[in-house]
From TrEMBL:
Organism: Methylomirabilis oxygeniifera
Domain TonB-dependent receptor-like beta-barrel: 238-739
Family classification: Belongs to the TonB-dependent receptor family.
Subcellular location, principal: membrane
Name of this chain's protein: Putative TonB-dependent receptor
Keywords for this protein: Cell outer membrane, Membrane, Receptor, TonB box, Transmembrane, Transmembrane beta strand, Transport
BP GO terms, sorted: siderophore transmembrane transport
């Protein structure tokens, strides 16, 4: 309670300071019929796209050779989402969510089959930029959705393909996020909301302008108990910006602070889910994220045709986790001793049945009883502290060559990430709580991993769009990237962890656009990108010293970089219907070479990370959006076919012989079909109702890379929302999610159910949330 009081005192002081700054107010209501008079901030239809990390002179979207998608602040405010990942999931084609953690701020988001996830060790295939800063976490390239308040977002562009301009991890695409400033929103808006799952939130934003100076502040605080048992979360977020802008110069400084505690209790056995959809397998599973971020950006229009821009940033990020788990092991029923094979390795659980003769205890003594599986509790903590800093400088020119328009951008980027990772484990007691099971620590924590890493990334990029003819444009791009990774053991007990790795590559891209008709454009592109192996992969890559778990750091032989090659072609345009209908249709294919997978090395189940020949993601995207009188609508459909393109045997928790994957097998966790449709209708000039439907096909379970099990079930969910403005400066909104209370699962995995009788392999799934509703009030002054 004391912390909460101090929080509100601090926010009050910030608002007091902000209130002293002169403000430019909108004196008259200039909203159109069917549009909210609360919205002083509204972006016009985007005709120019920022196709580089920093602000450039831009190119018309019709000349960009790819299916770019966008989300505007208008869409964010009308739908009142929790975070960025929810907006992607509900509105964009080729985007899906695997709620593996069952926490809305810890979603695994896939775009065209490529992953952006907050979980360290995930194979990240998307890069994320926030106001020109590469926002992927420096230790594992992860993306923490909870670190940026959604109220601060002005616009998000989803750049498709392996665009080399956006650098590392741009295998399937890049997310380019831009935030608000005082020139966009002038005044103050305060919002309070509450409803299902014990969720309540307070949010406020303030913008002011005084001559060339502007100020923007937003904060939010949110608490909820979660819809599953033992799943509370707390978010505290602050975003601030001060700026100075003249006709030719723009300078601004952002500061972001986040202090969030999230609990996501993950997959649950289907047998437990059948009894109680709120239950969790084990708890707690807590993540604490703390961040301070400074980002200084500036641009100078040297001439009307030449723009110089740059940024410099510093981020301190601390992540702490606590996991209470049920560890299943193989024991001898006569002695209760843990069982190892002749090589001294723990016996794989898939072999734990029958006689113990021929096996040994951990001291090397032969056993004579029977083998059985036994579960015991374990608490595991991790702590990651990361210091990131760097900057980007970029020069853009728009001119003419032989009478044809030419747009050139060149840039240089450098960033350094220094991390300290520590993992500790302790024995715990398993304590049943209804259909859920928790842990209570019994023994002391012992350090298992203690490493320090430093990664330096330096890149030079160039992109040029030249009008070959009035309706034909050619884009050429490329980036040279150098990555330097140092890993050091800090425990003094494992020198094999120490290593130095370098990766470098020049990645090209080429694209063409042709305006075949007045309102229709054809496009084609070929692009390349790459990612470097992460420290977790480099420290478990020795076939002579395998790991029983992917996160067991033991040694660091080299791995090759993953290279992506993307082909994309399609068409987009407008139809003269109503206020105009935008449409798009396209095909994409991304081939990965040297993809990194965890592969089996022996029948005992131990394995290591290694490069495998090839994987592929390909598919089709179609979309439409428009406005007719008082109706706004959109529809998106995507077919995503993600497959292995080589034969390989992968390590398995459940199968001692590993999972045999054949060329053409489907990669788990990626549904082939997803469709989204939505609309909002203005019943009155001050009353809007809307909704959307999300339909997703089933996907194979993790661990079933050979496609031997059935998929999760396909599902469709309906979400509704409404907004009402009874007086000029007041808005009341409501939203209802999963209106039909559909039972559905977004992902699954194969594992041993520690609480089964007997302990056996079972399907674990990530259940979707039930019907829920919230009401909010916005006040503007």
């Amino acid at each position: 309670m004391r912390v909460r009081v101090l929080w509100y005192v601090a926010i009050g002081l910030i608002w007091l300071v902000a209130g002293m700054m002169p403000r430019a107010w909108a004196e008259t209501d200039q909203s159109e019929p069917g549009e909210s008079p609360l919205k002083a901030f509204e972006l016009p239809a985007v005709e120019v796209i920022e196709h580089t990390p920093l602000s450039a002179l831009g190119i018309p979207i019709g000349k960009y050779p790819g299916n770019v998608q966008e989300i505007t602040s208008e869409e964010i405010e009308s739908q009142n989402p929790l975070d960025i990942s929810e907006m992607f999931y509900r509105n964009l084609s080729s985007v899906n969510i695997n709620a593996a953690q069952n926490n809305p701020w810890q979603n695994d988001v896939t775009y065209r089959g490529f992953l952006a996830s907050p979980l360290t060790g995930s194979p990240i295939g998307l890069s994320v930029y926030l106001d020109g800063m590469r926002f992927n976490d420096g230790f594992g390239e992860t993306m923490n959705w909870d670190l940026t308040p959604q109220s601060a977002i002005a616009e998000i562009d989803v750049i498709p393909g392996s665009n080399p301009v956006f650098g590392l991890n741009t295998l399937g695409g890049a997310l380019n996020i831009r935030t608000k400033r005082g020139f966009d929103l002038q005044g103050t808006e305060v919002e309070a909301s509450g409803g299902s799952f014990g969720r309540w939130a307070v949010e406020a934003e303030h913008g002011a302008v005084h001559g060339p100076f502007d100020l923007y502040l937003t904060f939010n605080t949110l608490d909820e108990s979660g819809w599953r048992e033992h799943s509370p979360s707390e978010l505290r977020q602050l975003f601030s910006r001060i700026g100075w802008k003249t006709e030719r110069t723009d300078l601004n400084l952002n500061y972001i602070w986040a202090d969030n505690d999230l609990i996501g209790n993950g997959f649950v056995p289907e047998s437990t889910l059948a009894r109680d959809r709120d239950a969790v397998h084990t708890f707690p599973d807590r993540t604490g994220n703390r961040m301070h971020l400074l980002n200084l950006r500036g641009s100078r229009r040297i001439t009307d045709a030449l723009l110089l821009s740059g940024n410099g940033f510093y981020r301190y990020y601390k992540r702490k986790t606590l996991n209470g788990d049920a560890e299943v092991g193989c024991v001898d029923d006569a002695t209760g001793a843990g069982v190892v094979d002749a090589g001294g390795r723990p016996l794989h659980l898939g072999l734990c049945e029958g006689s113990a003769v021929g096996f040994f205890d951990e001291d090397g003594n032969p056993l004579a009883g029977a083998l059985e599986r036994e579960a015991e509790g374990e608490d595991r903590t991790t702590r990651t502290r990361t210091h990131d800093f760097g900057g980007t400088f970029q020069l853009s020119h728009s001119g003419a060559i032989m009478g044809r328009t030419n747009r050139l951008t060149v840039g240089f980027a450098f960033d350094r990430h220094q991390s300290h990772y520590n993992q500790r484990e302790a024995e715990s007691e398993l304590v049943p709580d209804g259909n859920s099971v928790g842990t209570e620590r019994e023994g002391p924590f012992e350090t298992e991993v203690n490493v320090g890493t430093r990664q330096d990334n330096a890149g030079f990029y160039i992109t040029n769009t030249f009008d070959l003819a009035e309706r034909l444009a050619l884009t050429l791009s490329g980036r040279y990237q150098h990555v330097d990774i140092n890993i050091r053991d800090r425990s003094g007990e494992n020198d094999d962890l120490n290593g130095h790795h370098t990766f470098e590559r020049f990645s090209p891209a080429v694209g063409l656009t042709f305006q075949a008709l007045k309102n229709a454009t054809l496009f084609f592109s070929y692009s390349e990108g790459f990612r470097a192996p992460t420290p977790a992969e480099l420290t478990c890559a020795d076939e002579n010293d395998p790991c029983n778990l992917p996160n067991a750091f033991v040694a660091d032989p080299p791995l090759n970089k993953v290279v992506a090659r993307t082909y994309e072609f399609g068409a987009r345009g407008r139809l003269p219907i109503g206020n105009g209908v935008r449409w798009n249709a396209g095909f994409f294919r991304t081939d990965l070479s040297n993809d990194i997978l965890f592969t089996v090395v022996e029948t005992g189940g131990a394995g290591f990370f290694q490069n495998v020949d090839a994987t592929r993601r390909q598919g089709v995207e179609v979309g439409v959006q428009g406005r007719w009188k008082r109706l706004k609508y959109f529809g998106n459909y995507a077919y995503v076919d993600a497959t292995y393109q080589s034969d390989v045997t992968l390590a398995s928790v459940t199968d001692p012989g590993g999972v045999r994957v054949k060329d053409g097998d489907v990669i788990p966790g990626i549904p082939k079909h997803n469709a989204k449709v939505g609309a909002e209708y203005a019943l009155l000039d001050n009353l809007w109702i809307g909704g959307n439907v999300i339909a997703v096909s089933g996907n194979y379970l993790r661990g079933d890379d050979g496609n031997n099990q059935s998929k999760t079930d396909a599902y469709a969910i309906l979400n509704l929302h409404a907004r009402y403005v009874p007086i000029k400066n007041l808005e009341i909104w409501t939203r209802i999610d999963n209106v039909t209370d559909t039972d559905y699962e977004t992902a699954g995995t194969l594992n041993f159910n520690a609480f089964g009788s007997p302990i056996a392999v079972e399907r674990f799934v990530a259940p979707g949330s039930p019907v829920a509703g919230w009401v909010g009030v916005k006040l503007r002054f």
